[in-house]
Amino acid sequence: MTFSTLALVTALGLLGPVLALPTSWHIPAIVGPLAAGVLFGTTGFRVLDASEPTFAFLADIGFALVMFVAGTHVPVRDPAVRSALGAGALRAALVGVVATVVATGLAAAFGTGHAPLYAVLMASSSAAVVLPILDSASLSGTPILALTAQVAIADTVCVVALPLVINPSAAGRAALGALAVGAAALVVYLLLRLAEERGWQRRVHKVSEERRFAIELRVSLVGLFLLAAVATSMHVSVMLAGFAMGLAVAAVGEPRRVAKQLFAIEEGFFAPLFFVWLGARIDLRDLVSHPKFIVLGLALGIGAVVAHIVMRILGQSLPLGVLAAAQIGVPVAAVTVGEQLHLLVPGEAAAMILGALITIAGAALAAGPAGRIRQEGARQPAA
Fold it and tell me: pLDDT exceeding 70 applies to what percent of the chain?
């Protein structure tokens, strides 16, 4: 990889903020670099080679950081969210049941044999997508707390389940790897908790801020890369390492300064690079050669939305159900791992990304009606 290629990749990453700039569109910043990667990669001009070792390794770092930040977005310390865990867990479980039924039909119809994978995809939610939309729309109240809990549970469970279902023949090894990563993350959490209780974290924070050492950020990155080393040695994706590290940091409480530093590293360079790499790796020409996978992508996206809006029977409004269906981390992880292990048939990876984009589009459209429902509820007189 040369500096000219790196400059091109970094420039292509700027398309993310450009498309995400109109706040009313609610387009995640990942869509721009993903589309740019498709245009300049295997599908388009073929200027970018996703198989180049340095490019691929930098993308792995970006993937780990993306999942790290996604893990920190899970509100594990929020007592209000914890109080809504019961309703959220019930909805997440029922969504999983509906998604399993739909996935079984899709796998049989398309002959892929990937019913468990499709079920996890459609049952998943993305806290990294949903929570910013809720914040930008200023949504709050009991229904939003239940939605947040539902998304957090679905996000966590599906990230853990993905390595087990994407390659069933290696599920035992994947389970051991997941346990090893989880145990390592628990050790990291206990060490961070000890540092906080003993006051070490406050002293380090003060010195780091005064001397501009960024010690806490460095410690976070050491933990992340150690977990990634455990994951790769156990033949598990760095996806799980990043998400587990994010949950550990979120459980202790991430200092605001560290969050800003991490945001700068991840969103400023590594995340755009990863999504450009992912887009460059996907070959949308396979959809032309295998047009049935266009239908599969549409079915995965619509199936995910349907599985979530069924929660209307439990009192969740339709707009909030559509919001809950928004996904990106799990489909991206499925495509990344599936492509690396050569587990997907031509066109299947593109279909998964198409399905994820449909759920994001649905969430963007649902944000407005969800806000209006809240405003109308606020205007109603108390009984």
Answer: 95
Segment 228-232 long-range contacts (CB within 8 Å, at least 24 positions apart): 228/60, 228/64, 230/180, 230/181, 230/184, 231/177, 231/180, 231/181
Q: How far apart are CA 358 and CA 307, in angstroms?
A: 14
Count Cα neighbours of 320 within 13 Å in the Cβ-side half-sphere.
Answer: 26
Nearest residue to 118 (alpha-carbon basis) of 104, 108, 134, 136: 104
Q: Give the pair of three-digit tokens for residue 201.
A: 């974290």
Neighbouring residues of 229: CB distance < 8 A, sequence distance ≥ 6: none
Q: How many CB atoms lie within 10 A of CB 152?
A: 28
Estimate to the nearest angstrom the gap between the alpha carbon of 109 and the chain centroid: 27
Residues in contact with 3: Cβ distance below 8 Å, sequence separation at least 6, in sequence order: none
Residue 352, C-beta contacts closer than 8 angstroms, at least 6 positions apart:
121, 297, 300, 331, 334, 335
What separation in angstroms does the CA of 78 have from each of 127, 196, 251?
Answer: 14, 18, 10
Query: Looking at the predicted structure, is the pLDDT value of residue 289 above 50?
Result: yes
Q: What's the pTM?
A: 0.82
Q: Which CATH architecture has domain 32-370?
A: Up-down Bundle (1.20)
In this prediction, residue 372 carries a pLDDT of 65
- What token pair was written down for 136? 């930008």
Instruction: Report which of residues 256 and 93 the model is more confident about.
Output: 93
Q: Is the pLDDT of residue 50 over 60?
A: yes
| CA 318/CA 306 separation, integer angstroms | 10
Q: Which residues contact 368 (CB under 8 A, 6 or more apart)?
A: 24, 137
End-to-end alpha-carbon separation of the chain, Å? Answer: 66
Rounded-to-integer distance, Cα 147 and Cα 209, Å: 36
pLDDT: is 69 or 49 the higher one?
Answer: 49
Q: Rounded to the nearest 5°, which phi and psi values hold at 91?
A: -65, -45
Residue 201 has pLDDT above 70, yes or no: yes
Could you tell me the pLDDT band of residue 158, with boundaries at 50, 70 and 90?
A: very high
pLDDT at 377: 45
- Give me the residue spans of the domains in the chain: 32-370
